[in-house]
Design goal:
The complex is a heterodimer of chains A (about 240) and B (about 350). Chain A is mostly helical and about 240 residues long. Chain A contains 9 helices and no strands. The model of chain A is unreliable at about 1-5 (pLDDT under 50). Chain B is mainly alpha-helical. Chain B has helices spanning about 1-15, 25-35, 50-65, 70-75, 80-105, 115-120, 140-155, 165-195, 195-215, 230-235, 240-260, 285-295, 300-310, 315-325, and strands spanning about 270, 275-280. Chain B has a two-stranded antiparallel sheet. In chain B, β1 and β2 form a beta hairpin. Residues about 335-338 of chain B have low confidence and may be disordered. The chains are: A mainly alpha (about 240), B mainly alpha (about 350). At the A-B interface, α1, α2, α3, α6 and α7 of A face α4, α5, α8, α13 and α14 of B.
């Protein structure tokens, strides 16, 4: 099944990775003008831009980037449910970043070394994602080990998003990765960061019947449809126009 | 050079007896430095009024950058192509960066970012009136780039030679990025103007709504601009409001022609004798109303700004508490990651 060159890029895998980046980038873009401190306006926009850049490369491997972003219906998107979750407060955004950027960093590092059609993209993106992961870890420490309020908010955020994390390790068709080993490394890393932040690993299930593999199969949570409506509205209002 | 030396000498002489300073020696050295087009630096003596004017102007400039993120961020989630979305995100990010440069420049004058933000949030300091207008269509993003950033650049390029060093240096960096944004805005409008009839109409409508507010960005007419004369004497300001406004109109008219769009002013025509474009009267009533807080978005802009700040308080407190707890730690601040 492993593809060997850009000509044979597995479309489903390109969409899965591309949609993750596209959707999370969009969510982070919603922070513009609302961040708690000016430095975070810069940082969140910077991460959003990196992700959008990755999304454009990945979607272009699968087809036309704008057609794929703006003209697919909700059921055709392959992103993880985790990345489509609303921003919530800053702690929710950081918890989502911690879970996802740790996953993305480990996955890209592996894709970069094992070769295959995504190796060039992964090799470039892994450097950006290392920064995203560091940013999320640093903030997890500050919120977890900051004040009582921030600790409580961070704990709640980590708990609330925990059930979306199992989906990340469902094998993706066309992606050559050792998913079980990836999951073990992810758990180890997240456990370590949460521990250093004075937080404990949430206890709830990570693979509920509905969330397991759902986003990857085009089954999304309700906020996602509204997000797409906003994202696609203008493009869809002017069929065939160029911008 | 001689005047800088004079200032140093004056400082040395006066430093010996701080309570009986003969400020006229300082004042003479300052005046001479300004006259010789030298830069005033943070540790140089400067008149209190010069310091106060700079704090007010730089703070207002910084506030404009961060309030100015809002009308454009309003379209990030709706940008019609991924390329345009990336450009817009990068632009809004740059504006946050400009805010950071400018708050830093203001801090060299002995104030702090927190203090300035406080004044913004309580309405004691202003931001550019232009950002009190709403972005109603995607084309507004282009009109802001072309006209609003264009006006800002016309205003700001002379500030690269402003007498206060930190401000002048911040402006050099800012102007480079702003002219990039301005070209992108122009290019966005051009794509719309040459697109479908609906897109063209969208572009024209945006230019119709943003033209006059952009002309107001240069401030009141020279006759009604009380701070201008002093600012020009201090070489904070290099040209009058009306001079810069005229320069902007002269630049925009041919650009509008090549965009295939019209400017909403029936009195706009070339004046051979003056070698400039004549243009119609500005609605100064509207200008003063917006400045007083009665523009279309004043309330919304400041409310969003305050809310972001208030809702972020617990995050800033967490960062401060964490920093205090880990003040002695090695490796928690990025030092080990270098």
């Amino acid at each position: 099944m492993t593809a060997t060159g850009p000509a044979t890029v597995p479309v489903i895998a390109a969409l899965a990775l591309g949609d993750d980046a596209l959707v999370l980038s969009h969510r982070l873009g919603e922070w513009a003008g609302h961040a708690p401190v000016l430095e975070e306006e810069v940082a969140l926009a910077n991460i959003a831009l990196d992700l959008l850049g990755q999304a454009r490369v990945l979607l272009s491997l699968a087809g036309d980037e704008d057609e794929l972003a703006y003209l697919r219906e909700e059921r055709a998107f392959r992103n993880l449910q985790l990345v489509e979750q609303p921003n919530g407060d800053f702690a929710h955004t950081i918890a989502r970043q911690l879970y996802f950027s740790t996953y993305q960093h480990l996955l890209y590092a592996e894709l970069a070394t094992t070769g295959g059609p995504f190796a060039p993209l992964a090799a470039k993106a892994v450097k950006e994602v290392a920064y995203h992961r560091d940013h999320a870890e640093q903030w997890t420490l500050r919120l977890g080990d900051g004040t009582e309020t921030s600790h409580e908010r961070m704990r709640r955020a980590c708990d609330a998003l925990w059930r979306f994390t199992g989906e990340m390790f469902q094998p993706v068709e066309g992606l050559d990765a050792d998913w079980a080993a990836l999951e073990a490394r992810w758990l180890e890393s997240v456990t370590d960061v949460l521990g250093r932040a004075g937080l404990t690993v949430p206890e709830g299930p990570r693979t509920g019947a509905w969330s397991a593999g759902a986003g990857r199969q085009g089954l999304h949570t309700e906020p996602f449809g509204r997000m797409l409506a906003e994202m696609q509205h203008l493009h869809r209002s002017h069929p065939g126009a160029t911008w | 050079m001689a005047t800088a030396a004079a200032q140093r000498t004056a400082r040395t002489e006066a430093d010996g007896a701080p309570d009986t300073v003969d400020t006229t020696a300082y004042q003479r050295a300052f005046d001479a430095a300004v006259a010789a087009d030298e830069r005033i630096e943070p540790r140089d003596w400067m008149p209190d009024a010069y310091r106060a004017t700079l704090v007010r102007q730089i703070a207002q400039h910084a506030h404009s950058e961060i309030i100015g993120m809002q009308p454009e961020a309003n379209w990030i989630t709706r940008a019609p192509s991924l390329r345009r979305k990336a450009i817009l995100m990068a632009k809004v990010q740059d504006e946050a960066g400009h805010g950071l440069y400018l708050y830093s420049a203001a801090e060299t004058l002995g104030t702090s970012r927190d203090e300035l933000l406080d004044k913004l949030h309580s309405g004691r300091q202003k931001y550019s009136s232009i950002f009190n207008y709403p972005t109603l269509t995607w084309a507004d993003v282009g009109a802001i780039g072309w006209l609003v950033d264009g006006a800002a650049i016309t205003n700001q390029v002379p500030l690269c030679r402003c007498s206060y060093g930190p401000y002048a240096r911040a402006m050099v960096r800012i102007c480079k990025e702003e002219s990039f944004h301005q070209r992108q805005g122009y290019e966005l409008l051009l794509a719309l103007s040459k697109g479908t009839p609906e897109q063209h109409a969208m572009a024209q409508d945006a230019v119709d709504r943003w033209w006059w507010p952009s002309l107001m960005m240069f401030g009141p007419p020279d006759a009604e601009s009380p701070h201008s004369a002093q600012s020009m004497e201090w070489k904070i300001k290099r040209h009058s409001n009306d001079e810069l406004r005229q320069r902007f109109v002269d630049i925009c008219v041919p650009q509008a022609e090549s965009l295939g769009l019209t400017l909403p002013d029936p009195e706009l025509r070339w004046n051979e004798e003056r070698g400039h474009y004549d243009f119609g009267p500005i609605d100064w009533t509207e200008f003063w109303e917006v400045l007083k807080g009665n523009g279309p978005c004043n309330e919304q802009r400041i409310t969003q700004r305050r809310r972001a700040h208030e809702e972020g308080a617990w995050v800033r407190e967490a960062a401060a508490a964490y920093a205090a707890k880990h003040a002695g730690d090695a490796g928690e601040t990025g030092a080990t990651r270098a």
